[in-house]
């Protein structure tokens, strides 16, 4: 009985993660993931050319001195909104024919705390988790500290997850 309760609680907790709900069940060979490596490298070059990885640009954003980063973030949100609208409207499936499902999530105070922690970390380090590897690749090796901190933070969250407000 105890194990069933623990399994039920784990299932409820995991249902908060859409990746656990929408995760593909298809099995592919190892080289199938090389396309993600190449797309990641391309994405890194785009980040570099757009100055998204620039510590100075990030500091300008948090000091409200420049529109550059807000324009990039805003255009990314707009593209995502249009993409989600099109996926829902035309019932678009993945390239493997799997259905794409969007699950509603209710708002809670944990999202405020997490957003504040994320924002403070971003402002203090001048590094968002997305372009960390691009920053390191450009020679900003001090960002390795931020990378390890992000990994440690992810581990701490996973460890204390069931005790945190969700």
UniProtKB/TrEMBL annotation:
Keywords: Membrane, Transmembrane, Transmembrane helix. Pfam families: Sulf_transp. InterPro entries: Sulf_transp_TsuA/YedE (IPR007272). The chain crosses the membrane at residues 36-56, 68-87, 112-134, 140-160. This is YeeE/YedE family protein.
């Amino acid at each position: 009985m105890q194990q069933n309760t623990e399994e039920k609680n784990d299932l409820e907790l995991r249902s908060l993660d859409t990746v656990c709900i929408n995760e593909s069940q298809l099995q592919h060979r190892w080289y199938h993931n090389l396309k993600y490596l190449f797309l990641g490298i391309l994405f890194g070059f785009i980040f570099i050319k757009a100055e998204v990885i620039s510590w100075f640009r990030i500091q300008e954003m948090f000091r409200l001195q420049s529109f550059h980063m807000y324009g990039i973030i805003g255009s990314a949100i707009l593209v995502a909104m249009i993409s989600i609208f099109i996926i829902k409207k035309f019932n678009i499936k993945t390239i493997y024919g799997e259905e794409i499902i969007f699950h509603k999530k209710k708002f809670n105070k944990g999202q405020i705390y997490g957003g504040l922690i994320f924002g403070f970390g971003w402002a203090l380090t001048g590094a968002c988790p997305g372009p960390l590897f691009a920053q390191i690749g450009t020679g900003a090796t001090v960002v390795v500290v931020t990378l390890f901190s992000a990994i440690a933070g992810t581990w701490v969250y996973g460890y204390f997850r069931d005790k945190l407000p969700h």
